[in-house]
Amino acid sequence: MFNNNPVVRFGRKCQLVQTSSDIALRLSYGPNGSYAFFKHLTSAGLDERQRQEILEHVECMRQIKSERLAPIIGTYQNGNTLGILLDWMSNGSLHALIYQRDLYPVLPPFVCVQILADVAEGLCHLHSLSPQFVHQALKPSNILLDGKYRAKVSDFGMESLRYLTSNEINQQCRVYLSPERLQGYEPSTADDVYSFGMTCYGMFRRQPPFHGEEKEYPLKLETGITRGLRPQPGMDILLKATNMSCAQRAGLVELVNCCWHQNPKMRPSTADCLGFLRKIQQTFSVEEMEQSVNSLQKEMAEKAFQSPVQEYDISFLDFYCSMVSGKTVQRNRTQSTPEKSHRGVIQFKSQRSASLPCPNSVQSVQTSSPSLPVASHMNGTSLPCENARHHNKFNLTRGCSHHEPRSGGPSRPPNHVQNRNSTKTLIEIRESLVQDMTEGKLNRLLDILRSSQIFSRDEYEVINSKITLTNKVRQFLDICCEKGEEASRTVLQSLSV
């Protein structure tokens, strides 16, 4: 049977580490006790042939190597427990850098540009493979940072195994998906470029794109995105708050506007993005470069930030994985699964149209100038970008090197939460939520309900007064059910149940 994954010797302990976005499993391995991130794959119910197919796919991903890609160390197998091991990065993910303002109050512009260039380089390597390898799930939590804040793209190729993981694409992650992906069309490199543009925007905004809107009006938001809606305020306004030069700001504004162009054929290739960002990097002085990285390292050292860690015997790993595997398998086997190619990458049955023009019934969306990127929206109207195409000193190439997709209907509609009987649904899945809830997820739900004025401050404090996470979750669910449909529906939509 095919299995070239290397044999890895593990220590006798595993750790649960609280990261900025979730709880992570960390294992020590090798003679030096190096750390690896454990990504669980649900293998319960799979026969030997299916397990071997998974191992073949992981081996294909392990063979993809680049300085700007997070290396896959190997696989962990023990009984029904199966997982992928990735190199543990000392500075966490871009998610932490963006959103942990107490740790990183200021992000130096050079570091931001350097990280974006690293990500573009990693994507460029994936897209240069034959056949092309599409990431399909680029977002800040899938961009890891080493000790010098150099970025490595992670989770490439994992989208085709998502039905085996305990992670769903929640509403906050869907804002990074291109209009074509939201409509269910087959993946292409242009989708990664769109996600790259959204990631760039989120870095300088220091909030997720469409922050707040994705929780309150998910259906309306996704419809708007497919019709040309883009985050506000625009990049030009965001960058005015930085100490970047006018030329640097203009270059980044043009880059983002091109990356999230409504027409996928008009988005630049990742090679174009990389070359463009390299030119912007060259405009920073050597002193600026050194000071930028040193300032972040100093912030980290002074605050001596340490993620909360709980250590267990290695046997806990199997127990922990078994708790979530049953629910994951049952949930995903009810969904249609696209076919896989010989490289393990999902091949969707239907393909997209070349330009995905906006529906004719929407009069407010600009469709007469397909060569112009959609820059922003105002009062529901999408505006064509007014970039100085011929005058910008960085001269971003707008020609797209992506394969031209063939026309066809979407293979599947996006999954959305049903609004009926939300309270009943919440009661039915109560114990599953209690088991699967993390501190980060609970805090996010509380923030959503408080900002929506569904929860009062007193209710918020009652929940936080509970000592254990389990008791907090139970109190939280009790209050939601007492409040009825609005609270229950908001929770289900936020969790993408």
UniProtKB/TrEMBL annotation:
It comes from the Eukaryota. InterPro entries: CARD (IPR001315), DEATH-like_dom_sf (IPR011029), Kinase-like_dom_sf (IPR011009), Prot_kinase_dom (IPR000719), Ser/Thr_Kinases-Pseudokinases (IPR051681). The keyword Transferase applies. GO terms for molecular function: ATP binding; JUN kinase kinase kinase activity. Gene3D superfamilies: Death Domain, Fas, Transferase(Phosphotransferase) domain 1. GO terms for biological process: regulation of apoptotic process. Residues 2-284 form the Protein kinase domain. Residues 418-497 form the CARD domain. Residues 355-371 have a biased composition (Polar residues). The keyword Kinase applies. Keywords: Kinase, Receptor, Transferase. Pfam families: CARD, Pkinase. Residues 355-374, 396-421 are annotated as: Disordered. This is Receptor-interacting serine threonine- kinase 2-like. It comes from Pelobates cultripes.
